[in-house]
Amino acid sequence: IRLLAISLVTAAAVGAFEVGLSLRDTQILGMTTASIGLMFTECSLVMLIAQSLVFSPLVKPEATRWFLTPALIILAASLAAVPYAASGVAMAVVVALVAGSAGIISPIATYWISLSAGERQGTALGWQTSAASLGQSVGSAIAGILFSVAFIPNASFTLTAVVVLAGLFASARVPRLLAPEMFRSRGKADNAPFAKGVLSHAPRVKDRKQVE
């Protein structure tokens, strides 16, 4: 449930960021569509690099659970900083921080949901996809609505940052709940996730015949 909440909050933040950034850059900063396209290109490249580093031989898979809370903090701080990024360099830095933090949260959550689901892997991943889709839809819609709210300055970014901070409560105990013992007991055997866990629950036909 905690990982699903993290997936929902992260997807909502990404949806709100994309809509809010497009509206702010065109209506307030007067940026061209080409400049906005370059920002989203940067966003995709940073996500690719961040995910490649986190899921590389440089990082142990069981250590990825410790990245969730710091990444959520960076995501919330960078979202709150978007309205104050006036120059092109500052905007590029903020976009990189948002992309890098959000880019590793979702696959890490997916990885641990898949690993901890056991034989219900398909169901768990289905719930995770639904949570992410719901979060992105709600985040995009609310960002568009809040952009024109005058009595809350920069509402689409500020309130989204608050929502991400709320997700910190869900991530607080995740590293301890996803203990290394669980990773080792359900880890990869011959590159097949859950092989050990599945085999340990398989019926022992030979022993059953002996009992009969």
Q: Features of this protein?
A:
212 residues; mainly alpha; Growth Hormone, Chain: A
Walkthrough of the structure:
This protein is mostly helical and 212 residues long. It has one domain: Growth Hormone, Chain: A (Up-down Bundle), CATH 1.20.1250.20. Helices cover 75% and strands 0% of the residues. It contains ten helices and no strands. It has helices at residues 2-27, 33-54, 68-81, 88-117, 121-146, 155-171, 174-177, 180-185, 195-200, 205-211. Helix 1 (2-27) runs antiparallel to helix 6 (155-171), helix 2 crosses helix 4 and helix 3 packs antiparallel against helix 6 (155-171). The longest helix has 30 residues, at 88-117. It is globular and about 50 Å long. The termini are far apart.
Largest sheet: none
| Count of runs of 4 or more consecutive helical residues | 10
What is the class in the CATH system? Answer: Mainly Alpha
Per CATH, the superfamily is MFS general substrate transporter like domains
Helix percentage: over 70%
- Using only C-alpha atoms, the radius of gyration works out to 21 Å
Q: Within the CATH hierarchy, at the fold level, what is the topology?
A: Growth Hormone, Chain: A
